[in-house]
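BUG: 3D viewer hangs when loading the predicted structure for this chain

Environment: internal workstation, default settings.
Expected: structure renders.
Actual: progress bar stalls at 90%.

Input used:
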Amino acid sequence: MKRLSGLLQFMLGFVMGVAILVGGATAVAYMLLSGMNSNPPKPVFTEEKKEETKEEKAAKPIPTTPVQEQPQAEVKESPKAAPAPKASPKPSPEARKREATSSGYQARVTWQSGLSLRSEPTSESTRLGGLDYNTKVSVVETSSDGQWQRIRLSDGREGWIKAGNISRVE
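Structure tokens produced before the viewer hung:
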């Protein structure tokens, strides 16, 4: 009986040792692989530095220096002086919005590998050229189904691109 008990202890100890060894190796492998699985941080190149938006510029305080007021000499109007021209009023935001939609708006290509400029709003139409990432364009119109946008380049060329690959620039 003593002999059976010693054999049973040896087998049980051997199985437990192997289980602990396999469990520890699995835990170490999991830790190493999960650390390597995350994406590296996106590099920022000098050509792609973020431009400040109007909101960010407005949020920054403008440094001011106190200005000393100096007495001004009196100016007498001559009877023949012409009236000063009046400044034209600035258009309201609604008027600017109507103007932007009627003549289009400025945008920038956001698709990393660039876009194809097509003659018609279909994938089968003739390819007129390509647009690189971050190219500025003017959006002239959008197709009736909303899948394509007609754009104008700075050199005057016009064509169609797939919608959703540009972002509006103010």
